[in-house]
Amino acid sequence: MGKRQAPRRLDETEAQACLRGLRTSPRKLNLVAETIRGRAAASALAELTFSRRRIARDVKKVLQAAIANAENNHQLDVDRLYIKEATVGRAFVLKRFHTRGRGRSARVEKHFAHLTVVVRERVEGRE
Question: Which of 115, 123, 39, 124 has its CA nearest to residue 84?
């Protein structure tokens, strides 16, 4: 019994990995995601390894997970993978207060973001 298996949303030559609730604002995360969109997987890993941004470590982990999913779950060739999509979305916002002078307070918003990385196997004829 139980539910039927949902149809696969991705193509047969694609694999993805997600990380939800990253502790950074979506704008900052999107700056790092822009640097790897459309690149070869090995090139993107090298770019993230030497990036000076703190959040690049988490993006690199998600990319490595997507590559592992492609290799182990979908039997894709790791050397021909490239980043098809690197989508960033808004998550929740924690609202906090910071005390100020003369009995006042200021609102502090701590933003969180979601990240989804989709890798795809390059077709033989195209470069």
Answer: 39
**CA-to-CA distance for 20 and 22, rounded, in angstroms?**
6
Does residue 126 belong to any structural domain of this protein? no
In a domain, 8, yes or no: no
**Do the domain assignments include residue 102?**
yes
Q: What is the pLDDT of residue 126?
A: 58
- pLDDT > 90? residue 125: no
Q: How far is CA 6 from CA 2, 10, 18, 66, 119, in A?
A: 12, 12, 18, 20, 20
CATH code for position 72: 3.90.470.10
The per-residue pLDDT for 8 is 87
